[in-house]
Design a protein that fits this description.
The chain is of the alpha+beta class and about 160 residues long. The protein contains three helices and seven strands; from the N terminus they run H-H-H-E-E-E-E-E-E-E. InterPro entries: FixH (IPR008620).
Length: about 160
């Protein structure tokens, strides 16, 4: 079986080096632009900065940790759909009545962080989307000792 060449002439321009270069430059330009947009959004939502000057913060870390551990306070967080219960107990297991400042957000971004004032043992009406959430708790003991704890909870889908 033989094939006959087409009787129609080929139309269009030939593929030149300039056209190939333009295709490569356009393709890589799109890739670079998308990477820049994604990197900018990643840095804008979470800078990765936990403390402005880690060296200065480290100078008093051991003293602050020892004072906080001497309090003997323990924090627990229980989430049920529509309700978050934070409990704070002392070394003897009794509930501590100190008010807590609570910030809830995602571990990898600060965009949706929300702050609340919480009384230990009282349920906070709250609807959390499925996934991992970070709870940053701070309080002050009656003797003025600062207390802070960071908890991570998982909300099932």
């Amino acid at each position: 079986m033989t094939t006959r060449p087409s009787s129609r002439p080929l139309t269009g321009r030939p593929l030149t080096g300039r056209a190939v270069f333009a295709m490569f430059a356009g393709g890589f330009g799109i890739i670079i632009a998308v990477n820049l947009v994604l990197a900018t959004n990643a840095v804008r939502t979470f800078s990765g900065l936990e403390t402005p000057n880690s060296y200065v913060a480290s100078q008093s870390f051991d003293a602050r940790r020892a004072a906080q551990e001497a309090l003997g306070w323990e924090v627990t967080a229980d989430y049920a759909p529509g309700s978050l219960l934070i409990d704070l107990t002392d070394a003897t297991g009794l509930r501590v009545a100190q008010p807590l400042a609570l910030t809830i957000g995602r571990p990898t971004e600060e965009l949706d962080d929300t702050s609340y004032d919480v009384t230990p043992g009282d349920a906070l009406p709250l609807d959390l989307a499925p996934g991992r959430w970070r709870l940053d708790l701070t309080a002050e003991a009656p003797d003025g000792t600062p207390f802070e704890r960071h908890l991570v909870i998982e909300v099932a889908s």
